[in-house]
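Bumping my old thread because nobody answered last time. Still need a sequence for this structure:
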């Protein structure tokens, strides 16, 4: 699913239609957006990013950048952000 289509639906609607837990989907989306924006701002290609992270391929990056969040775990996204010198924090609160 393309990013444009994701924007026309709420994340909650997309997660539900894909059978994915909304909170996991939202976290992945936020992490992917952070990686994508950083790469765009710093001129890091998908191929270059893949070369920085063990076990990561340009194909998988292409898939997640195009909205296919199922192709990447939260663990791997945190690993990517760590390589890019980000610190990732998780907050939880009662609903």
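Sorry it took so long. Here it is:
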């Amino acid at each position: 699913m393309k990013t444009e289509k994701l924007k026309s639906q709420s994340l909650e609607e997309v997660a539900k239609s894909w059978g994915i837990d909304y909170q996991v989907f939202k976290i992945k989306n936020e992490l992917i957006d952070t990686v994508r924006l950083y790469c765009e701002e710093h001129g890091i290609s998908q191929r270059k990013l893949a070369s920085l992270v063990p076990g990561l391929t340009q194909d998988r990056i292409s898939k997640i950048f195009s909205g296919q969040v199922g192709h990447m775990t939260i663990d791997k996204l945190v690993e990517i952000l760590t390589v890019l010198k980000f610190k990732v924090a998780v907050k939880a609160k009662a609903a």
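The chain has six helices and no strands. Let me know if any region looks off to you.
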